[in-house]
Specification:
Layout: E1 9-12, H1 22-37, E2 41-44, H2 56-69, H3 80-87, H4 93-105, E3 109-112, H5 116-122, E4 145-148, E5 155-160, E6 168-172, H6 173-176, E7 181-183, H7 191-201, E8 206-210, H8 214-226, H9 230-233, E9 236-240, H10 260-265, H11 271-281, H12 291-297, H13 300-310
Parallel strand pairs: 1-2, 5-9, 8-9
Antiparallel strand pairs: 3-4, 4-7, 5-6
The chain binds zinc ion.
Zinc ion (ZN) binds near residues 112, 114, 131 and 132.
């Protein structure tokens, strides 16, 4: 296991495009446990940049459920009004655009007007093959996405909390991604840019996220390198295995996974979620376990040993 950063700064980053479900709670609790155990700083960031998907009830749901789960945090919006007045990412587009301008200046991005169906037809993998790379389309014309050029032989280093025997994993970028979109056709900066910009703003040095976001991490590390943001490049990551549903499928909001709201309505208690986390971490707890009891018993090195066994990681 790698050492956690001194003066750890981490965040939880829900997206208000659906009701929070057990998978979100799980990831947030893991983050909270590490932040509190190390006396680090925990920031709440809400990714509401995509106004086509954001809904007020989902925003309310975030605050209600963080409260239900007992998860406190050190910075970020205290409630819905505070969020709307001071923290909405929709007010930050100029800040994100600065990073995009920097990429334009460095000649790292280009405009692309290919439709989704055209891209689908042109490659079996569905990957974008760089059709617009040298077309010099105008960045400011309507209906163009901005894409970043991915070099063919570029290796990206990722510092993983539990990368066994190899503290820094190296990944060949072109195997992970095509020339990905950094600004969408609707002119909204892409998630990769926003996430990086927000983490940069908060000096985040430790990120807990599910394994499904590992490829996003690689993309963001490449952006950080391109934009010369060494702080984020040095961040430590924990890409935890995902909690699966009874059919062994990933819990996703879109598939109608059990929401925390539904659990509350059924009269279920948050200790059921703490128990699930405890089981995952290899901690034995009572049925009515509280969050503070979980925090008291949580020990990262002991949990690491448990992971080795459970997820068949080889030492
Ligand atoms: Zn194109």
């Amino acid at each position: 296991m790698q050492n956690l950063p001194k003066n750890l700064r981490t965040r939880i980053a829900p997206t208000p495009s659906g009701f929070l479900h057990i998978g979100n709670a799980f990831s947030f609790i893991l983050t909270w446990l590490i932040a509190r155990k190390t006396k680090g700083h925990l920031h709440l960031r809400i990714d509401d940049s995509d106004s086509t998907r954001t809904r007020l009830e989902y925003l309310e749901d975030i605050f209600e459920n963080l409260n239900w789960l007992g998860l406190d945090y050190d910075s970020g919006a205290k409630n819905l009004t505070d969020f709307q007045q001071n923290y909405s990412q929709k007010d930050q587009f100029l800040f994100y655009q600065k990073l995009l301008n920097e990429l334009i200046k460095k000649n790292q991005i280009y405009a692309c007007n290919c439709s989704r169906s055209k891209i689908k037809k042109s490659s079996l993998s569905g990957k974008y093959l760089g059709f617009c790379q040298n077309r010099n389309l105008d960045f400011n014309s309507e209906n163009v996405a901005w894409r970043i050029r991915i070099p063919t032989q570029k290796w990206i280093s990722v510092s993983e909390l539990f990368e066994i025997g190899n503290p820094t994993k190296k990944v060949l970028l072109s195997e992970i991604t095509d020339d990905f979109v950094v600004r969408r056709k609707d002119k909204i900066p892409a998630y990769q840019i926003i996430s990086l910009a927000e983490d940069m703003k908060e000096n985040i040095n430790f990120v807990v996220r599910g394994k499904d976001l590992e490829d996003s991490t690689i993309r963001q590390l490449f952006l950080a390198e391109t934009l010369n943001l060494p702080h984020f490049q040095k961040a430590l990551f924990w890409h935890h295995p995902l909690i699966l549903d009874q059919k062994n499928e990933k819990l996703a909001k879109s598939k109608g996974a059990v929401s925390l709201q539904q659990m509350q309505k059924k009269g279920q208690n948050s200790s059921e979620i703490y128990q699930l986390v405890a089981k995952y971490l290899g901690i034995s707890v009572s049925e009515n376990v509280t969050l503070s009891e979980l925090l008291e018993k949580f020990n990262l090195s002991e949990s690491e040993a448990h992971f080795m066994e459970k997820f068949h990681l080889i030492k």
